């Protein structure tokens, strides 16, 4: 049962289906654990969610404890240095998640959140619980502007390589073939 999805994506995906009643607990556990030997949850007691601080519990026990606290949603986050997308803080959660490259933000019905950061040791994964803040989702407008800027740069690059003078106000005649009526570099030269 090999999955190419990161552990956080599997937990958020299958955890969401489990909350909605679309899958049974056994399927959730099978899909999240995958080829690993086991998954455990540590640190919930330190957040006031019951249990013993010195003992990690099984994935089933940790998810059951979170569900009893009133889980509203699971969300995967894949932050990188300088771009903690999907995380709302605090800094210790952000740092741990950036170091791991992934995390799951569990939003509770009272508005609080728990961040679960996976720590792998061989074939086992321990989800370390951190106090969290509701995750910030990317702004659609900002994402659109970033995509347009990247696409614009990518589509202009071949023209500049083929015709280095494309940025000049009046390019030589052979370069006018690269111009389209929608190009921001449009000129009337050569017409």
Task: Please characterize this protein's 3D structure.
The protein is an alpha+beta fold and 191 residues long. Residues 175-180 have low confidence and may be disordered. It has helices at 7-19, 25-33, 59-68, 91-100, 140-162, and strands at residues 38-42, 57-58, 71-77, 103-108, 113-121, 124-132. Helix 1 packs antiparallel against helix 2. Strands 2-1-6-5-4-3 form a six-stranded mixed beta sheet, with helices on both faces. 27% of the residues are buried.
Give the secondary structure arrangement, pairings included.
Layout: H1 7-19, H2 25-33, E1 38-42, E2 57-58, H3 59-68, E3 71-77, H4 91-100, E4 103-108, E5 113-121, E6 124-132, H5 140-162
Parallel strand pairs: 1-6
Antiparallel strand pairs: 1-2, 3-4, 4-5, 5-6
Helix pairs in contact: 1-2
Rg calculated over all Cα atoms? 24 Å
Number of helices: 5
Largest sheet: 6 strands, mixed
Mean pLDDT: 82
- Beta-strand percentage range: 15-25%
Low-confidence stretches: 175-180
Strand order of the largest sheet: 2-1-6-5-4-3
Elements, N to C (H/E): HHEEHEHEEEH
Helix content: 25-40%
Structural class determined from secondary elements: alpha+beta
Strand count: 6
Shape: globular
Cα end-to-end separation: 63 Å
Short description:
By secondary structure, this protein is an alpha+beta fold. Helices cover 34% and strands 20% of the residues. The chain has a six-stranded mixed sheet with strand order 2-1-6-5-4-3, with helices on both faces.
């Amino acid at each position: 049962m090999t999955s190419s999805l990161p552990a956080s994506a599997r937990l958020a995906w299958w955890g969401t289906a489990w909350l909605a009643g679309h899958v049974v607990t056994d399927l959730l556990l099978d899909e999240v654990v995958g080829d690993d030997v086991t998954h455990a949850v540590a640190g919930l007691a330190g957040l006031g969610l019951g249990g013993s601080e010195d003992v990690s519990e099984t994935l089933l026990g940790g998810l059951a404890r979170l569900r009893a606290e009133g889980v509203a949603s699971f969300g995967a986050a894949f932050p990188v240095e300088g771009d903690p997308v999907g995380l709302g803080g605090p800094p210790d959660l952000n740092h741990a998640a950036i170091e791991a490259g992934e995390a799951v933000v569990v939003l509770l019905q009272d508005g609080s959140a728990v961040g679960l950061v996976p720590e792998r040791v061989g074939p086992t994964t321990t989800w370390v619980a951190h106090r969290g803040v509701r995750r910030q989702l990317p702004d659609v407008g900002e994402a659109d502007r970033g995509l347009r800027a990247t696409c614009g740069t990518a589509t202009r690059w071949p023209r500049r390589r083929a015709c280095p003078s494309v940025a000049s106000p009046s390019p030589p005649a052979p370069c006018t073939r690269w111009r389209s009526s929608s190009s921001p570099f449009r000129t009337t030269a050569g017409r």
